[in-house]
Amino acid sequence: MRPFISSTRCPVAAFTVTTLGWVFTMMSMGLAEWRVWYMDNTTSRFPPGMACIGLWKVCTHHHISSSRRNAACHPYTYSDTYLPPSIRVAQHLLLAASVLGLLGKVLTASALRNVYLGHLWKDTTWNLFITSGILNLTAGVFISVAVIWNYCSVMNEEGIDFPPSFYVPFKPDKQGMGTAILAAVLAAFMMLFSGMFSFSYRFPADSQVHPEVSDI
Questions:
Q1: Which of 103, 149, 161, 209 shows its CA 20 to 30 Å from the CA of 25?
Q2: In terms of Cα–Cα distance, which of 23, 11, 24 is closest to 195?
Q3: What distance in Å separates the CA atoms of residue 59 and residue 163, rounded to the nearest whole number?
Q4: pTM for this model (two decimals)
């Protein structure tokens, strides 16, 4: 029984880490804090405040007075031409990563089901683990590319030409990375880690087929 438990430990860990990575991927997609812009200069057109720029929306928090703040969120559409390539590409990469992560989780669960039910078809089960590992590694790479590109955009202080109705300048006085990046980094790490876990599966020794030797 001990070899069986040892052989399934890595796939179980891969399934757990993949699930967590997929949750963090979805979380990072929904959060608006991929970039945080700080607007300190007071002008009649752009009041002071903060703008949280995400993959699918931008949320503004303007200081109207010392005791009053105005908050609003503006979702993006695919027809918006003002979005930079870093955001457009990140949208597709995160969507693809979420689908790949979900498929990897399903394949890992199917492979574990075969193992725990004693259906040790070596080729089928091994292919399921390998395929899920490839999907998870690809998802981790996609998320990493989106995170690195966003990091470079913040470090280079790139601007975005938002519509005037958003009351957001082309470039802020200061910008940084938000909490969504932390969730995306965790998602990328977990997806890459789970992919390596999937490759480490070994069949238990007592499941191998040995030919019978007859005594003469």
A1: 161
A2: 11
A3: 13
A4: 0.82
